[in-house]
TrEMBL record:
Name of the protein described by the UniProt record: Deoxyribonuclease-like protein tatD
GO terms for cellular component: cytosol
InterPro entries, per database record: DNase_TatD-rel_CS (IPR018228), Metal_Hydrolase (IPR032466), TatD-like (IPR001130), TatD-type_Hydrolase (IPR050891)
GO molecular function: 3'-5'-DNA exonuclease activity; metal ion binding
Binding site for a divalent metal cation 1: 129, 240
Lineage: Eukaryota, Fungi, Dikarya, Ascomycota, Pezizomycotina
Superkingdom field: Eukaryota
Family per record: Belongs to the metallo-dependent hydrolases superfamily. TatD-type hydrolase family.
Pfam families referenced in this protein's UniProt entry, alphabetically: TatD_DNase
Organism in which the protein naturally occurs: Amylocarpus encephaloides
Binding-site positions, a divalent metal cation 2: 166, 192
UniProt keyword annotations, A-Z: Hydrolase, Metal-binding, Nuclease
Amino acid sequence: MATPSPPPAAAQPYQPRYIDIGINLTDPVYSGLYHGTQRHAADLASVVQRAKDAGCMKLIVTGSDLAESEKALELAEQYPGTIYTTIGVHPCSSLQFTQHEAGAQELLDKLKHLALASRAEGHCVAFGEIGLDYDRLALCPKDVQLRYFAAQLDIAVQVNLPLFLHSRAAHADFLALLSKHADNLPKKGVVHSFTGTMAEMQDLVAAGWSIGVNGCSLKTAENLEVVKQIPIDRLMLETDGPWCEIRPSHASAAHLGGWEEGRKWVKKEKFVEGALVKGRNESCMVRKVAWVVAGVRGESLEVVCEKVWGNTVRMFGLGEEGN
């Protein structure tokens, strides 16, 4: 008598996996410092562990200038295979080029050498955060931003890394400069924390760029319509912590039905180990961004997470097989 076949194994529930492409872990708040005052114990290790526990297995720490890029690299060395970094100077910090004691070219050379060395070590996966920000010209004039965005694009060509890009109220100039370098940037890159219009998104996608979405990308009904139309093979997710959290006043709140927070939040003055700090976004909350994005797009969480995972590991070469 034939031995009966065993019943098929029950399907395991889907476990989402995430990559936070933009997290500012060098910000002092992750060391418990707020405006120069120590409010609670440093809890960076807990922030990283919470991310992993939530399925956010890889974090790309943003480099906003040379010093912050160097700090980000220290974190990448401390958490190999989990933390990666970008290297570059943010448009709002571009006055540093004009103020550098040995001149702008030395600062540019240092960025280039740091990017090349850390790329070889597997830590740096993108050049940035670079771009233009005309909303905050008080921090850096337009002419300086334009000059050093162009200069950093020249470096990006030489270091052969994808770009981590910033654009605010500067779309025409931003796209024009990128277009000049397009043929020499085969790895393209991502315009992160995107809050632009539908037409701007479509321009960028048509030119080959990907779009990074966080809580600030989901504030208004118009934002949600843009996110709905981003081609899924150009979509990436981020928190941009400690900023850009999803708030109850945002249009995105209407898509939180069924969402379970699953974490305790406390004010920084009442900090306890293991709790999230109110007003301080962190990488474990990228899953909330994914939840809203899936709801807005009318797609399953699994479809969104798996496509975005594949997009991200392929662009940044994160040592995982993309789908």
